[in-house]
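note to self: dont lose this again. the chain is below, predicted strucutre after it. 199 aa total, dont forget to put it in the shared folder this time
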Amino acid sequence: MKRISIIFLSALICCTVTAQSAKSILDKAAATVKNAGGISADFQITGKQYGNQSGSIALKGNKMQIKSQQAIVWFNGKTMWTYVKKNNEVNVTTPTPKEIQAINPYNFINIYRKGYKYSLKKDGTNYQINLTATDKSRNISEMIITVNKNTYTVSRLKIKQPKGWTDIVVRNFKKANFNDAIFNFRTKDYPQAEIIDLR
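---
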């Protein structure tokens, strides 16, 4: 009985250490993004929900600009403008946190701390961290985050949502010093676009 208890206790300690290690790696990855002040990166997204598309992202605090073949999104922390290229129209909204979560590849820095359990694998020069939601009603039920061991930058995110898995590959992560103006839509740049205010 004592031997079984010792084995159980050892396994429990091992799992706890792994969870703490996984969380500390994500803490460092999140700090890499936050401490940069601003960042830019390129991405490739595949999955049922978004199809196959590539683009770039600029982030500064809670502000972002995302460019893809289909659309350009500006978010200044309150208002979001989405320019749909094929329709030449701009939808203006005040997005919910869940809507921001759905389009921002770096949103993991805000959601991993609560409501997920962790597991950790080492894969060459990377850490691979699997997050599984403890609350099954969460929109993101599982995430697999690949973090570089040396730079603590995220190179890949796999996200499981109700419509299936989305795979995001991140390249060319760089620190950047952005003027806040780039996170606001400028009407003069798209004079022929139809503005649809959905607020």
